Amino acid sequence: MYTSVIIPAAGFGERMGSAIGKQFLVLNGEPIIVHTLRQFQRADVIDEIIVVTREESFAMLGQLIANGGLTKVRPLMKGGRTRQDSVCNGLSAVNERCDIVLVHDAVRPFIAREVIAQAAEAAAVSGAAIVAVRAKDTMKLAGPDGRVEKTLDRAFLWNVQTPQAFRLSILRDAYALAASRNTAATDDSSLVEQLGIAPVIIEGSYDNIKITTPEDLLVAELLAPRFS
Ligand code: CTP
Ligand code: MG
After folding, report:
1. Superfamily per CATH, domain 3-227
2. Are strands 158-167 and 128-134 parallel, antiparallel or unpaired?
């Protein structure tokens, strides 16, 4: 089973508000993206890593990859306007032997190798698998007027993370359908769901945060030593 992972890393990090893309901010002595890539480099199930980033970052990231001994990383791919565009560019570069493809945000450095393996294996069996954690908060559905319409049953609610893992043909079909219908989504599973496929949920860990806003960096500094 040849398994590829696409790492979208072409965002601007507007919500972080930092001068450089948040994927390049230093955490526990190293850029966030290096922590993320190292987890996939060390995961036995992963055969190749496709990183998608903005062209202006190619030289700097190439240096980080070389210095970090990240030998599974293939030549860098150019990012697009949205995350979806970036993943789509990454999809065009996967090895022709690829059976299973994972997609993982560059800004989720605390992904455990066991979870990477579980996601890949579940996709091999079921076609599509996503990593998620049980919702901690009570969740409400509001109307456009900002008033509560109803309280959802937390037992059935999940906070979705990455990686998300798919049989390559399924993810390619999903992206083709999205292109033909002009649909936009913030995760890959949503596009696969449009094919009528129900991905299985792998219960992950609350550690696997997406570094999005400045307070996430404070939490990340506390979590980092556990993953180095
Ligand atoms: N991403 C990407 N291409 C884009 C936009 C986002 O590859 N055009 C990547 C980001 O680099 C990140 C991941 O998708 O690794 C998740 O996106 P998000 O957390 O939204 O990051 P940003 O888009 O950089 O942040 P913001 O939305 O606050 O601008
Ligand atoms: Mg974004």
Report:
1. Spore Coat Polysaccharide Biosynthesis Protein SpsA; Chain A (3.90.550.10)
2. antiparallel
Ligand 1 close to Cβ of residue 94 (< 6 A): no
- Going from the Cα of 10 to the center of ligand 1, the distance in angstroms, rounded, reads 6
Ligand 1: centre distance to CA 15 (Å): 10
Q: If we measure between CA atoms, which residue out of 6, 77, 86, 69 comes closest to residue 34?
A: 69
Please tell me the distance between residue 150's alpha carbon and the centre of ligand 1 in angstroms: 31
Q: Looking at the CA of 14, which ligand is closest?
A: 1
Per-residue pLDDT tens for 160-200? 999 999 999 999 999 999 999 999 999 999 999 999 999 99
pLDDT in tens, 126-147: 999 999 999 999 999 999 999 9
- The verdict on the CB of residue 163 being under 6 Å from ligand 1 is no
The DSSP output letter for 73 is B
Every domain of the chain and the residues it spans: 3-227
Of the listed ligands, the closest to the CA of 11 is 1
CA–CA distance, 43 with 45 (Å, rounded to integer): 5
Q: Round to whole Å and give the CA distance between 159 and 203.
A: 10
